[in-house]
Amino acid sequence: MAEKNWHVGSTLSIAVHALLCLAVTGAPARAFAASDRLAVPGDLTRLDPGVIWEALIAGIVVCSFLAAIGLWIHSSLRRSSRLQLRRNAFISSAMNNLNQGVVMTDAQRRVIFCNDRYLEIYGLTRSDLRPNMTGCDILRLRRERGVLGVTDDEFYEKASSANGLTTELPDGRAILVKYFVLPNGGSVATHLDVTEQRNLSRQLASTKQFLESVLDHVPACVAAKNIEDGCYIFANSAYEKFWGLSRDFAVGRNARELFASASAASIEAADQAALNSPDGQHRNEFEVDRAGARRMVASIRIVVRNESNKPEFLLILFEDITDRRSLSQELESTKKFLELVVDNIPVALIVEQVKDGRYLLANRSAETILNRRREEATGLTASDIFNAKEAKLIVARDEAAIRKRGMITEEHPISTKNGLRLFLTRRATVVNDAGEPQYLIKTHEDVTDRRQTESRMAHMAYHDGLTDLPNRAAFLQALTQMIEACEGTREEFAVLCVDLDGLKEVNDVFGHALGDKLLIEVAHRLQDSARGGVVARLSGDEFGLIIDGKQPEAGLALARQIGEAVAKDFQIDGRPVRAGITTGMSVFPHNGTDGASLLANAGAALFRAKQKSRGTISLYQPEMDQQIRDRRVLHQDLSMAVKNGELSLAFQPQGAAGHSVAESEIIGFEALARWQHPVRGQVSPAEFIPIAEESGLIVEMGEWILREACREAASWPKPLQVAVNLSPAQFMHGDVVGLVHSILIETGLAPGRLELEITEGVLIEDFDRGLALLRRLKALGVRISMDDFGSGYSSLSYLQAFPFDKIKIDRAFIINLGRNPQSAAIVRAVIDLGHGLEMSIIAEGVETLDQLAFLAKEGCDGVQGYLLGKPLPIGKYAGLIGRAEAMELALKTG
């Protein structure tokens, strides 16, 4: 403003000087003119009064003229000042109404201008800006307000780049900042909200990826090429498979560079025919040379035009029709080809017009739902096809899907010619260019059989496959519920552990098939005797019961009653079979206040009863804790076993399921722990593994087993897989992912060769944590297998939540193959379920050729059991792992 004022003052001074000069030059002229009329030129004192008056009047006129000119100049300057102020106000208003924030600084980086949009973007006010604030000060203010996440240097460096700096605000907005340095040393920074542009960009990228994915899954070969140079710009996976070329290689090259001359000529001729076609489409069939073989292809070429209606690129669809040329007439057009694809979709597909609800398209599978031929359904509505009640429900669900404009999925029964079936229905709305709903696509998938299978699998998770009684998990659950109901009251109940006497003899004499029938009959008599009480099969020949009432009288009475019931002869396959029971009993709350303790104490009482005499009843007594003390001694010995080198590994072969042992190629081994006690000798894993699980020693033991198994497998000449069991305790304590990773690095074993077997206990304890750990293990590249599937909870939700590589069928189901149809049905269902989820299936406990043949016939992927080999030191399987030299040396020295 000082400069501006200085400029105005200078202009006024110049104007005054100019007027004075004009007056000075005019005054002498008048004086000289007057002097000519003087009588005495030399006597200046004798001037003529008239001349004097004329001079005065001339001076007054000149001064008035000069004053008028001065006033005019002053008025012009005031008008110019007001115009400049209005211009500044206009510029300031315009800058404040920009859609992007603007900040200007002078050469000393002081903020000289900041518009309202900038303050609005970052949630600032004018009061936040103090005088002489610098650019760094305003950045510091933004950082304090949480709307700047970079340093000053990073801000200026990135904002002054060509692409500018894009920052993310806490509310999710994205701001693009560009910083420009002015010639005078000042700067201008613009701040533009690009949230919508970024979202649109992401949506565009997502849409492009989706379209490419769709084209990749189209069974026909799809490609596109530039019309200008004939070079390919896109090719889908079917195209790659047909030609044996990668799309990266094909893109950017023309037909002459990719194919044989004859094939290239045919392709170029078809391209030219499409370009010359009036409608921009061309269909033809021609032969091409693929890897030296002549193949007949049916192609469709479509000229795609740009916004200016000029041909831009050529879309090509073709398929190999060599083996089905007789169908070529049915595939003459894209519409017929797409109809063929739709008709072969294994679910019912119906397309409905939104405006009137009429069916436009139905595939062959939809005829089951429509109860008529698809041609007859075209043009009809739901009210025309279904009864009033069903039509009302269908129309309501259709309208809900249209309003939502998204996917709606539901399951509901539909009447068909085969009766009432359960269908999974999906509804999706398709909108037109104006964003209005135009079509409704409905798919109906018959899930009746699947849901029945899932129901059977869910039942199997809590029930015994042979007797259909609740299993151990269900029994413990019932115990917990019973305890919760009795807590705080004087109610008592008894837990009975019942062991079936003579089952082994029956199996040995009459075979396992008859033994299984005996177990079923015993289960029926136990249920009848229990009169609605809980009866469960806890293990092979052990049952559990819960009986309420005054104890121990009610429990002992029931034990005697079931003993009498079982003592009666069983008529099985026309022959009388005798059996008996031995019973152990514990009482709540005197012998335990939790399910595990009650069951363990009843088991201890059963153990004492069997020691006394078969067929007796034993009530738990505190002195039975001696067995617990023995277990504690075993636990102390086990804690030193790893340090003393008493543990070793045995390896059991796993093979592909063939119709014979010779056809069952060995694909890997399972590593199993063995304990050679210095006093007791070989201790069964059934004894020390539960102790290790309960005490937490399994974590240290499991680490040793995993490391030794990986080290051993890494030394095998053949790259076979090695399977190692992981305990739920290893997931709950320590970093199991870090442990596996470090052992793989330490031993050098390829991650893909390691298979970790887990039970559902990993997910039961803490589902979310267990699932997260499994995903991290999977990311290492190792394989994850669910062990003992069907023996515990085996919830199907686990299979849905995590993509297991393998499901291991429990040996309990394999043993009964050929003895009862239920086991075969369950095994078959598990195989179908696993394959449906793209998981491999392996069966353990395979001991007979009949079992192997059954599993191979049903498509089981792998087998494990004594039929292929027992768990032995790996040296016994030297030939299988490729150590031919070691095997030959053993033969020579042995």
Describe the structure.
- The chain is an alpha+beta fold.
- It has 33 helices and 31 strands.
- The strands form six sheets. An eight-stranded mixed β-barrel has the order 23-24-26-27-28-29-30-31. A five-stranded antiparallel sheet has the order 2-1-5-4-3.
- Helix 16 (448-462) crosses helix 31 (821-836), helix 19 packs across helix 20 and helix 23 (685-695) packs across helix 24 (697-714).
- It is elongated, with a radius of gyration of 47 Å.
Largest sheet entry: 8 strands, mixed, barrel
Number of strands: 31
Contiguous helical run count:
33
Instruction: Provide the gyration radius in Å.
Output: 47 Å
Strand-residue proportion:
15-25%
Identify the overall geometry. elongated
Measured between the Cα atoms of the first and last residue, the distance is 111 Å
Strand order of the largest sheet: 23-24-26-27-28-29-30-31
Mean pLDDT: 83
Low-confidence region ranges: 1-42, 886-894
What is the helix fraction of residues, given as a range?
40-55%
Going by helix content, strand content and strand pairing, the class is alpha+beta
Gist of the model:
With 894 residues, the chain is of the alpha+beta class. It contains 33 helices and 31 strands. The protein is elongated, with a radius of gyration of 47 Å.
